[in-house]
Each structure stands twice: as structure tokens, then as C-alpha cells.
Design goal:
Number of helices: 10
EC number: 2.3.1.286
Cofactor: Zn(2+)
Strand content: 15-25%
Distance between the termini: 17 Å
Order of helices and strands: HEHHHHHEHEEEHEHEEEH
Shape: elongated
Subcellular location: Cytoplasm
Helix content: 25-40%
InterPro entries: DHS-like_NAD/FAD-binding_dom, NAD-dep_sirtuin_deacylases, Sirtuin, Sirtuin_cat_small_dom_sf, Sirtuin_class_U, Ssirtuin_cat_dom
Number of strands: 9
Family: Belongs to the sirtuin family. Class U subfamily.
Radius of gyration: 18 Å
Length: about 250
């Protein structure tokens, strides 16, 4: 039995699956990750500001114009489509087998594929709000804004994406629901994440179920915890799993 067949077998016998994913989940949809050789942090090394600085709260507050130039140019991919991983997870949810997707991604592709039980640890580019009056703005609104820094049409306040920047805390309710889902899962699928971003990476330690499967192109510090390691592209692997489970 190869790795894809083993994964398919464990999915078939499980009833409370949780998926914990990162940027590598969406690379096959054309969205660059952060830390790989071709990732955002590597390709931006010659910028006057490192990405960690550009994506910090203090930088947003002081240089919203530079932030938005980077954000629009590098982090928004409105035309991206779900890949085999997103689609299989949505199907498993529809079958009642998958109980939560916990994602570090902000692209909304899990919802686009049809998943509804999605816990977005780092927020979403699809939600934006005026920092003063809290009026909501969509991703389309941000993309269509003619201003470098989008401003509220009601009060003129700065519109901020609902994404967790460096120096900001994760939403506590989302964390609570993620811990609850992991604690009651019988199969944990960890995909497309280096497991180096904290506190998100620590969440998988709450899993006490039967099997952990880690799908990532490069080694992680949690490899020794996994019952199955898969390094092939996650979208292709999940497409193969879907064919096996019918």
C-alpha cells in the first residue's frame, strides 16, 4: 500500500477529520507561499523593507500607503481557483466526515470550494472594515478603490483588511473553536505548512486522535509526530485520494 492509498484508507475509516493547513495548500492554485525557495519572503529580499516589517501592525499604522502597495501587488489573488486539496476537503465535509478546516491562509479558497466549517486563524482578504465606524468592505471594493489607501465612503476613515498582522493577536474565539475541533478529532491532516508560525503551529499538539498525516514539501519540526509523511504536491495527492474513495 503506497502513501496515497494509506491516506485514503484512513479517511474512509475516520468520522471526525480535521485539516490544519498553511500557504502550501494554495500554491497549486497560483498563490505563492512565504518561506519556500520561490516564496514571498525570498523574492522580496531586495525590497527596502522585509516582508515581516511590511506586514506588521506598526508599519500599517505608520505607512499605510506602502503597505497597500505591497498588499495589492503580492497578496491579493482574486482570480485564484481551488485545487484538488480544497475540493476534496469540501467533499469530505459534505459527506459528514470532515468537521473543520483550520487554516493559516487568508485567500478564502476553502470557502470557494464549498467548505463551510472553516476557521481562519489569520483572517481573510475578503473581509475589510473601516477602522473608525467599522463599515464592511469586500475584496472587490478594495481592488476597485482608486485611492492608494482605501477610505470609508461614510466617514473617511482608513479601511483595514481583516488579516492578522505581525504584532496583532489571533482571534480568541477562533482559537477556542480550533482547539475544540482538534481535541475531538480522530484523524488529523496537516498540509502545506512549515509549522513555524506561532501560536498557530502549537495548536496541533491538542490532537489526541488515532492518526496524524503530514503533507508538506519540506521537513518540519513535527515530522516525528506523524504516522504518515507525504512530500508530493498536496493538490495532486488529494486528487488521487478522491479517485480512490469514489
Amino acid at each position: 500500500m503506497n502513501a496515497t492509498e494509506q491516506l485514503a484508507a484512513w479517511i474512509q475509516e475516520s468520522s471526525r477529520i480535521v485539516f490544519f493547513g498553511g500557504a502550501g495548500t494554495s500554491t497549486e492554485s497560483g498563490i505563492p507561499d512565504f518561506r519556500s525557495a520561490a516564496g514571498l519572503y525570498q523574492t522580496e529580499q531586495h525590497s527596502p523593507y522585509p516582508p515581516e516589517e511590511l506586514l506588521s501592525r506598526h508599519f500599517f499604522d505608520q505607512h499605510a500607503d506602502i503597505f497597500y502597495d505591497f498588499y495589492r501587488g503580492k497578496m491579493l489573488h482574486p482570480d485564484a481557483e481551488p485545487n484538488g486539496c480544497h475540493r476534496l476537503l469540501a467533499r469530505l465535509e459534505q459527506k459528514g466526515k470532515l468537521h473543520a478546516v483550520i487554516t493559516q491562509n487568508i485567500d478564502g479558497l476553502h470557502q470557494k470550494a464549498g467548505s463551510s466549517h472553516v476557521l481562519e486563524l489569520h483572517g481573510s482578504v475578503h473581509r475589510n472594515a473601516c477602522m473608525d465606524c467599522k463599515q464592511f468592505y469586500s475584496l472587490h471594493d478594495i481592488m476597485q478603490s482608486k485611492e492608494v489607501v482605501p477610505r470609508c465612503s461614510s466617514c473617511g476613515g482608513v479601511v483595514k483588511p481583516d488579516v492578522v498582522l505581525y504584532e496583532e493577536e489571533l482571534d480568541q474565539a477562533t482559537l477556542y473553536h480550533a482547539i475544540d475541533a482538534l481535541s475531538s478529532a480522530d484523524l488529523l491532516l496537516v498540509g502545506g505548512t512549515s509549522l513555524t508560525v506561532y501560536p498557530a503551529a502549537q495548536l496541533i499538539t491538542y490532537f489526541q486522535g488515532k492518526h496524524t498525516v503530514l503533507l508538506n514539501a519540506t521537513p518540519t519540526a513535527y515530522d516525528h509526530r506523524a504516522d504518515l509523511l507525504i512530500t508530493e504536491p498536496i493538490g495532486e495527492v488529494m486528487k488521487g485520494v478522491e479517485q480512490l474513495i469514489g
